[in-house]
User: Which sequence fits this backbone?
């Protein structure tokens, strides 16, 4: 008999978690204004709010922490991190930042001015936030297939190259750079193919525009290239990464994802001009350029995490767990963005809660229902997160409205995935009885989903 698949690690340290009662959860979610970001973590049983900074570090990462060099300038930890990043990406200039959005803040402060337009594939909310807060515009040119959750497309995160060519031919003067997010988080953790990166690079060069990769989950992207794209089956993940980054002029990185650290990020580039400009901003916003908001120990852990998580076995274990949850949802007929993404399952909320009008935020309603059902905390990647149009101030209902179940790396077992699947099935079974969603009682101007206050619609 063929041996079943099992994780490529064993567990050395555990952390207790506990299921609460329905009565408790009803009280807590009300106190949290029906916004799961406002819950206390201890009120949560299985926490799938994000895979960012929530991963379990390895024994090698923890041991590297002990060797952290906390020197203010020129720490060995910086050089260990820089060498690892340069090895994997081919970029020679590296600037640490405290997390991904800080890398965006530093770099965008140098590159974006009012009225600029930044074309790309479904910019992540912080990326969009850093663009829009500079009175510039994020232009989403993701392939149309990404909007149909039931369509099985291997590289659903791709940029539509025809749209990009057309956009640049008409607006090149307003575009400081092109951005590609790997994997495409907002479209469902969907990968971008090597071919697409090559094409985007070619078009960007034609118009003399630099290409930036938002690389939070680049290793997962490389895994999908290896298992889905012709010609890459026999390449190592590290070889694939090197080729991917050969098409970019620079990267911003949230190391809290694919480098499996709890905090950290960086900018890396071969463009001296970007590097010099970013160094100045880093010193003002983040810290001296050899630590940029990170402790030496964290830079050490980041270096080891990047090395480990650009190995096939680690990525296979991770992505197979996401696929496992997807298979369980398939058994129950629950619709999600297909195929399963690299870091999360994105449930298509309007297809589940068909009676909840869009004005009452179906995905947020489903997020609340799943929490009430079993203390599972997912997060809305939908109409709330989309914020209002900066010009008309209308809600943006034109995208997808998803409940994201993001799976932390190396934290939960497939038994936990079973609990998640069954809890969702129970909500799914009573979906006809859920006819009202939520209304906003207070919201911030930008990135409102973190702090929005809601109440059940009457
Ligand atoms: N880019 C992408 C694609 C991201 O997913 C994130 C964060 C960032 C940039 C910003 O990085 O959090 O380190 O400042 N995503 C998290 C998430 C928050 O839950 O998807 P950060």
Assistant:
């Amino acid at each position: 008999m063929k041996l079943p698949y099992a994780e490529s690690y064993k567990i050395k340290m555990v952390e207790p978690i506990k299921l609460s009662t329905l009565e408790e959860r009803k009280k807590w979610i009300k106190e949290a204004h029906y916004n799961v970001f406002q819950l206390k973590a201890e009120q949560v049983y299985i926490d799938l709010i994000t895979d960012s900074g929530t991963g379990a570090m390895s024994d090698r990462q923890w041991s590297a922490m002990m060797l952290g060099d906390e020197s203010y300038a020129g720490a060995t930890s910086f050089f260990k991190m820089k060498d690892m990043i340069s090895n994997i990406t081919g970029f020679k200039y590296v600037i640490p930042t405290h997390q991904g959005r800080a890398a965006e803040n530093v770099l965008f402060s140098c590159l974006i001015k009012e009225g600029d337009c930044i074309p790309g594939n479904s910019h992540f909310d912080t990326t969009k936030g850093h663009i829009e807060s500079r009175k510039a515009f994020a232009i989403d040119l993701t392939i149309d297939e990404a909007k149909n959750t039931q369509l099985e497309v291997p590289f659903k995160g791709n940029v539509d190259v025809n749209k990009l060519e057309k956009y640049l031919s008409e607006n090149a003067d307003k575009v400081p750079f092109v951005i590609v997010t790997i994997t495409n988080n907002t479209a469902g953790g969907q990968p971008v193919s090597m071919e697409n990166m090559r094409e985007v690079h070619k078009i960007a060069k034609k118009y003399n525009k630099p290409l930036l990769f938002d690389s939070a989950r680049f290793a997962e992207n490389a895994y999908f290239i290896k298992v889905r794209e012709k010609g890459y089956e026999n390449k190592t993940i590290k070889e694939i990464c090197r080729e991917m980054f050969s098409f970019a002029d620079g990267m911003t990185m949230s190391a809290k994802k694919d480098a499996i650290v709890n905090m950290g990020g960086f900018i890396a580039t071969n463009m001296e001009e970007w590097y010099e400009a970013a160094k100045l901003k880093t010193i003002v916003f983040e810290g001296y350029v050899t630590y940029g908001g990170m402790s030496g120990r964290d830079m050490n852990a980041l270096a080891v995490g990047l090395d480990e998580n650009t190995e096939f076995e680690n990525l296979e274990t991770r992505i197979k767990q996401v696929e496992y949850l997807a298979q369980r949802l398939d058994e129950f007929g629950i619709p999600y963005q297909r195929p399963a993404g690299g870091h999360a399952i994105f449930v298509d909320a309007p297809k589940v809660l068909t009676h909840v009008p869009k004005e009452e935020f179906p995905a947020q309603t489903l997020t609340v229902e799943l929490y009430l059902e079993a203390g599972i905390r997912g997060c809305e990647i939908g109409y709330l997160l989309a914020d209002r149009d900066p010009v008309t101030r209308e809600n943006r209902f034109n995208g997808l409205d998803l409940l994201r179940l993001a799976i932390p790396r190396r934290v939960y077992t497939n038994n936990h995935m079973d609990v998640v699947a069954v809890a969702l099935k129970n909500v799914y079974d009573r979906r006809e009885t859920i006819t009202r969603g939520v209304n906003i009682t207070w919201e911030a101007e930008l990135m409102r989903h973190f702090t929005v206050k809601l109440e059940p619609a009457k």
